[in-house]
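Summary: Need help interpreting a holo structure output

Steps to reproduce:
1. Submit the protein chain below together with the SMILES for coenzyme A.
2. Request a joint structure prediction with the ligand placed.
3. Inspect the structure token block that comes back.

Expected: a single structure record containing both the chain and the bound molecule.
Actual: see attached output.

Input attached:
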Amino acid sequence: MRAKIIGTGSYLPERVMTNQDWEKIVETSDEWITSRTGIKERHFAAEGQATSDLIVEASKAAIAEAGIDKDELDLIIVATISGDNAYPSTGNWVQSKLGIKPIPAFDLSAGCSGFLYGLIVADSFIKAGVAKKVLVAGAEVMSRVINWEDRNTCVLFGDGAGAAVLEATEEDTGILSHFWEADGNLGELLIQPAGGSAMPASEETVANKKHTVHMRGNEVFKHAVRMMQESAMKAMERAGLTSDDIDLFIPHQANIRIIESTIKRANIPQEKTFINIDKIANVSAGTIPIALDQARKQGRIKPGDNVLLAAFGAGFTWAGMAIRF
Ligand SMILES: CC(C)(COP(=O)(O)OP(=O)(O)OC[C@H]1O[C@@H](n2cnc3c(N)ncnc32)[C@H](O)[C@@H]1OP(=O)(O)O)[C@@H](O)C(=O)NCCC(=O)NCCS
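--- attached output ---
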């Protein structure tokens, strides 16, 4: 028995923030951002729109496509690093806002690998008989946790949500393999230092912008290339597939140069790689589910296709997965 995806949905907030918009706020240029990252624009949530609001929109679309009643769901997993509150979990708000009866709901913190971690947990629970129909969402409102004065990081991120509904299948489709790892020794390279028990909120932490993204970009870049390649290769190997068998590769979209170097090393042609970083930037845990939904809606994934997913993120975490649709 495997778990398969029976519906996907995504939601991007209306407001589009272009590189030119950032030029008015920090010392940067469209040329620098485009050439160093591949990003042209990103979506930012409206005032008052929280992460759960974005997830609700994406989830409604995923549930509708799955053709199930929302009350058939028996588990909600939300992957995010920019949830509504420290607690309760954003998963709880999603359950409440969707008007679903009490079922287990929780958040999962694995940075940009969060959605893949969520799929792996859902797959395991379905195989173990713990859950039958699972909603997995990945979403961020990064615009609220970036430092709007730090050009090194603020231009890299966007807001959005993606969701998938999974159920068991006896067919030769669904999640074929996964690979996941984490190494906390690299935790300091990408961190929101304040707001937790290690550094509680104070006037000083707020003044020093410690509640925002802190990143050593160059270091992250080096690890990312290795982790993305390893995740892609291991997921293919564990599914008994080679790069020739892959119909579409959906990599995490943090930097076009990381994607290009990954596909070169993993021997995957650019035509078989889904790229939307120019339009949505890095939506952390939201990136993969948004891309997956867009790829399906654009007709780039047909029944029987083998799709490869790979991500890396804060933690560090990294993960790969092969899915047959
Ligand atoms: C952040 C990143 C784009 C920076 O690109 P880079 O080619 O490594 O650039 P560098 O860090 O070497 O910085 C080069 C210069 O550009 C400057 N710079 C940084 N951001 C800038 C911006 N938005 N606009 C203009 N200049 C900028 C730097 O200050 C630096 O200037 P200096 O040499 O005078 O100090 C790149 O390192 C990266 O993508 N890293 C991985 C990030 C990532 O994946 N994060 C998410 C993990 S899920």
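--- end attachment ---

Reviewer comment: Residues 217-239 form the longest helix (23 residues). The longest strand covers residues 159-169.
Status: needs-info
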